[in-house]
Amino acid sequence: MADRERDERMARRERERSLPPVTGRDRRVRLDQPMVPRRSPLPEYDPEAFGRLSERIARFLGTGRFIVWMTVVIILWLVWNTTAPAALRFDEYPFIFLTLMLSLQASYAAPLILLAQNRQDDRDRVNLEQDRKRNDRSIADTEYLTREVATLRMNLGEVATRDWIRSELQDLLKELEQRGAVPPPADREEH
């Protein structure tokens, strides 16, 4: 048995070696061999990791700390480029480079914030669906318990209560006394 399997494996390997490699146009024709994997020219990234990074950045952009740091950087930028010696200034009066940097920051901040909002919307949608299912289960449980309580009430209506049993026993005792089968209560106490 083992020899037969070994021979089959060797024959399969020999057939695979004898076939020419799959290239170019043959790729569409040769269906008996797997395609040779090609590297994609596009960079690969993990969308989940990128989403977490965008949320972290968006969370920071929405803090007072970011506003304070941006204000400090802009003030330092303006002070440096107005009071520093002319040779050390890198952005003269209309502050074109500062405008460019702020525009660049805004062009990245807006999509990052939108990505973070989309992820939050997805989480909210999942949470809403889970809440809806939980509420449906709660309603079903409540309806079940309501039906059970109603059934118990109906069944209890048919159950003999202590007062009803007492009144029935007293009626039966009176009936037996009238027939004379049981002595009256005064005679019973003497025995």
TrEMBL record:
Residues 1-26 are annotated as: Disordered. The chain crosses the membrane at residues 60-80, 95-115. InterPro entries: DUF1003. It comes from the Bacteria. Keywords: Membrane, Transmembrane, Transmembrane helix. This is DUF1003 domain-containing protein. It comes from Streptomyces carminius. The lineage of its organism: Bacteria, Bacillati, Actinomycetota, Actinomycetes, Kitasatosporales.
